[in-house]
């Protein structure tokens, strides 16, 4: 039994997660084939472990969706959402805006305190018929910080610096703060 209050969704298997990633890539490819000159933002969540969603996370992703719709109302070409996936909520926004500018805006959003720290806001383009991610490295920007200690998140993740329960407790606390702030 979990002691977490806000990470309460169903547990998923590795096969379900891999299938969801494959489906996400197919969706990204479809959207960029339809709009090859556009920029695609894919929003998912940074939540390790077998529980990737909850009612609270779906509500917070709905708020993110509204914010992105407002921020990009002029540039928004197409959008898709899957807020109820057991592998975690997903948002897709096709934008008529420069990918590097969009990535800088997404990095600024991810750096905000609270729920946005949990968001993974990928920016993709079609480059010669292939998906290409516009990432921090490409823009010569610092990597994301670990939610637990503030160091390089990739280093902590690869080395398993923090146990799953420690990371989940931090994430659950972030969700709780956001939920309480929105009441």
Automatic annotation (TrEMBL):
The keyword Nucleotidyltransferase applies. Its EC number is 2.7.7.61. It holds the Pfam family CitX. The keyword Transferase applies. Keywords: Nucleotidyltransferase, Transferase. InterPro entries: CitX (IPR005551). GO terms for molecular function: holo-citrate lyase synthase activity. GO terms for biological process: prosthetic group biosynthetic process. It catalyses: apo-[citrate lyase ACP] + 2'-(5''-triphospho-alpha-D-ribosyl)-3'-dephospho-CoA = holo-[citrate lyase ACP] + diphosphate. This is citrate lyase holo-[acyl-carrier protein] synthase. It comes from Latilactobacillus fuchuensis DSM 14340 = JCM 11249.
